[in-house]
Design brief:
- Four copies of one chain form a homotetramer.
- The two termini of chain A are about 15 Å apart.
- The longest helix of chain A has 15 residues.
- Chain A is built from four helices and five strands, in the order βααββββαα.
- In chain A, strands 1-3-4-5-2 form a five-stranded antiparallel β-sheet.
- Chains A and D meet through β2 of A and α1 and β2 of D.
- β2 of chain B pairs antiparallel with β2 of chain C.
Chain lengths: ~150, ~150, ~150, ~150
Amino acid sequence: MSDAAAAPTGDVIRFRVRYAETDAMGVVHHSRYLPWLEMGRTELIRARGYPYSELEKRGVLMAVIEVQMRYRAPAAYDDPIRLETRLVEFGRVKLRFQYRIYHDTTDRLLAEGETLHAFIGRDGAPLRLASQFPDIWQRLQEIAGIPSSGGT
Amino acid sequence: MSDAAAAPTGDVIRFRVRYAETDAMGVVHHSRYLPWLEMGRTELIRARGYPYSELEKRGVLMAVIEVQMRYRAPAAYDDPIRLETRLVEFGRVKLRFQYRIYHDTTDRLLAEGETLHAFIGRDGAPLRLASQFPDIWQRLQEIAGIPSSGGT
Amino acid sequence: MSDAAAAPTGDVIRFRVRYAETDAMGVVHHSRYLPWLEMGRTELIRARGYPYSELEKRGVLMAVIEVQMRYRAPAAYDDPIRLETRLVEFGRVKLRFQYRIYHDTTDRLLAEGETLHAFIGRDGAPLRLASQFPDIWQRLQEIAGIPSSGGT
Amino acid sequence: MSDAAAAPTGDVIRFRVRYAETDAMGVVHHSRYLPWLEMGRTELIRARGYPYSELEKRGVLMAVIEVQMRYRAPAAYDDPIRLETRLVEFGRVKLRFQYRIYHDTTDRLLAEGETLHAFIGRDGAPLRLASQFPDIWQRLQEIAGIPSSGGT
């Protein structure tokens, strides 16, 4: 992604494992971590002052195009979870987040993940934020801690 | 529901319990039965020649406004499930389905349920099918096995 | 339920709607409210000093045997939710909770629900707490605000 | 994974998208593909004559330790889905599956994925199938189409 820049910004959320997130192995089902990552992204963006729900109202969606997860240790019902989310790449058409999930009292690393996203419109077509939504593009760059380069 | 009529029509679908549907008790989580009921409704309507996805394209949504479930016996991963769905009420603004869920090889009754639905538009406002979508109204009445009374 | 007594105790939790809880109607899928009710029960019991995870470790499970939901108004992604949970019946073999779900800033009632539970063991067989786990029975009665009547 | 061998075996399952699997973007939520992959593995193993539920009864669990997904095109409610599953690595402690998900009537590739698994016991500790469960190890090797090399 040639138009991406290192943009390490981080956020932390805490929550407990819901019973409905466990499976017959007695631990959290591996698919249930993905909505957690989504919560991490939501709160990171909100903390920077631009709720994702506002982006959606403007017609800017962030489609997930890649997910990678590595599961290190299981989580059980009612475990206190700490999720750290970082925005690590921020480009004209894509952005990338990294995640680390911990047991919040033992600090044991439970899982690590990464998601890659594309900006798309309501019709599913790719958006180029810099030219199509320059005010959002500028704002997100500020959120990512990157000086605006003027778009294209 | 004064405008409803008895409209017993039935359908059966079969499927297996997914691992992701189980919880730490080792059985299917009680919330996971609700998507099954939705599958039953979908297939009942499709079998009558009017896929629900077509209704949605026309702007006719069926919002769930009530759910009742009684859980009789647990279901486990990979269990073969048989779901019987009946449309039991069909009125101008609401319709009601009843469901019975069985273990398909033992015939043990696992759960019974009922859902009540309202027709709404994309904006969430109630629709009166008979006057606003008379062709759909007539078609759904045929599906329900009720002679059309002319609407409104 | 002749052995139950009115035991109104209440609790409130607040959280936001996750994106993964929405469906193609743009609102929270009706099945997704059930895990919320479970969170309400979990926090009500924890607030009284007896985490449900502790009950499970002792081999006392609370199986859901009935659910009733009435959906009043839709909830959308990122909406702030307030869930009020009350323990309304507490008997030797069953207990009943009632729930009211609100949009936390508008105070609009979104849904009401009720769940009925039975105490069962790891083998799925019903437990009679009063005789089989008298210490848990006594503790839960205190939680419910009911003076212990000595069990059996 | 030095003890793994190329073991291309394949299987195909077909199903429809459930309403509960969609999200507010109007398409299948990205987390919902993971239970599909699980169905693919389940049916691949069953087709070879060894249901995963049997493995679990013997105390042999297949924990997911890595997931990679690439999403190519969205899937909508009621879309007919075709999932192709291949067992591509089969070693003493790990196994790897690859998946391709298609729209079944247009043959459009919707997503590709890969999962890596470890054999673990009920206590979560790694198992070495070849020495601890030689009969299962031999049977799984036959399933994978690899001649048994004697284990350890």
